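Hi there. Long-time user, first ticket. I'm pasting a complex I've been working with (about 614 residues overall). I'd like to know whether the download I got is complete or cut off, because the file seemed smaller than I expected. Thanks.
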Amino acid sequence: MVIQVSHLSKRYQVHKKDPGFMGSVRSLFSKNTETVAAVDDISFTINEGELVGFIGPNGAGKTTTLKCLSGLLFPDSGKVSVLGYTPFERKEPYLSRIALVMGQKNQLWWDLPAQETFLLNKEIYGIRDDAYAKNLGELVELLEVEDMIRVPVRKLSLGERMKMELIAALIHAPEVLFLDEPTIGLDVVMQKKMRDFVASYNRLHHSTILLTSHYMEDVRQLASRVIIIDHGKIMYDGKLDHLVKRYAKHKLLSVVLDSYVPPDKLQAIGELVSYEFPKAVIKVERNASNVAAAELLQNFPVDDLNIEEPDIEDVIRDVFTNAPKKL
Amino acid sequence: MSVNNRLPISSQRSRQWPKFHYSVKRLMTIFSLYAQHALEYKVRSLVWFGVILFDVFVYVLYWRGVLQNGQSGGLWTFSEAVSYYLLLLVAGNLLQIHIEEEVAFEDIQYGRLSQYLLRPFSYFRFKFFQELPWRLIQGGFGIVALIGISLFVRHIVVVTDIYAVPLIAAIIVSAYVLCFIYKMIIGIMAFWTIDYTGLQNIQIIVYMLFSGMLIPLHLLPSDIRAFALLQPIGYTLYYPVRAVQGVYTYGQLWQILAMQWVWMIILYAIYRLFWYRGLRVFTAVGQ
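Hi, the file is complete. Here it is re-exported in full:
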């Protein structure tokens, strides 16, 4: 077990002020303080080499959890163990074996080439010359940035900077990698490249990776296991496909028609999600999908028919919307 | 690259860290990288040097006026004043640390501290190596200016006893470290403040008054002079400048060095206490 989290809680004090000038005056004499549980009694474990997607809406507690695991934040209660260390003690051997990459911020020197930051990290992490050359060569090749490491960071695009950020974070070959929104702000092409890189890195290095992302595509492509968190509590922890099977109450019948059929006739089969002749998408009860498909094939001029799972994003949205309690 | 080819962590990193020569080489490399970074902004260093040069110019003009009117009571001659402020030009650039705003605003309040906390190198050492090149560059400007000015100004009085030089050098190095610890303490106060600017402004006034930047501490009114001469800020600027002026005996130089070390130990203990308490309230905002 590489990561063990047991009943972890982290709360913040938030000052609240009434609106307007009088609110400001009142706050001079009495401050309204509210305690917000960013993470509320969560427990999970992650094995070596696992790539786990950590998902949830804004303010759900994802980043706070990652910060507790990497040792940035001191938990209010509970136990956290990563690679056998207590993260908040931030012992040098522990920090030498982990990395936290945050999409919004960077460690690169703005006016110098990224190579200088890599060299600084080489010394900071005490990496041997041969290991440094090998790691850098591999990362540069995987990310296809041979020509960019000598260019001042300010001259690089956002995507290129993110790649340099990853190299800086991975140059010491961490065994545990925390990725917080690594694709945020990137275009779709760059997002895909990043995903490919993370997948390759996990496969080749057998690193344990915990990934948060707003883009479901990141999670779908990379993680077989997901942890869903909302309001600081874990709502689901398991395989991504199990989540769909267990919580998606519907399936989608995607039909291509031979000839036009009035919409009201299709609605007799199920909820007509979209219809633009010749294509129609019909939402049906999950356990009645085979019957509905058979009825379509028998009674309608069907050219092609597919039974599809609903979009994972819709399933998760339903989880957040309809399931206030732990699933 | 394959799993089998991957070097185990233990062999990728050198386990020779305790070896002194390796540690020195490592620190020198880190220093040279930060120096490279500071050199990128040499114009900024020149501007800051110019600010202190202007201040010194104003102080010398002020004292010229005061001493022409015979208002010093015999405590202070124009030669001493010129020497003091011209040496202050070097000391102000070399020894006056400016790390506190970066610590407070960029690192703590905007959350960049996270990037330091995640690496196996203490934040204190990071900041020390970040600041040192800036001071050396600015101090270099100060020394060049002092040499240039001394070609035209006859009033500069400095120590002539060659045997006192190593002791004075030790006082200068200790002054640097003491000032660094003091400014780090001021910077990490941002853990507990929402608006750090007010604290910073108070700190500037206190520093100006008690470092000997505005007025040499021995010229302060008698009711605050004893305190001013004992408190730690005076040991960061006033005492080193007076030592270079050659006004102290060997015994007094040793005493100054001893007091600097006493203050360093006390302030470092305070820094550690605040640092660990501060980390507990750090929320890594913005990161």
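A couple of notes from our side: The mean pLDDT of chain A is 87. The longest helix of chain A spans residues 188-205.
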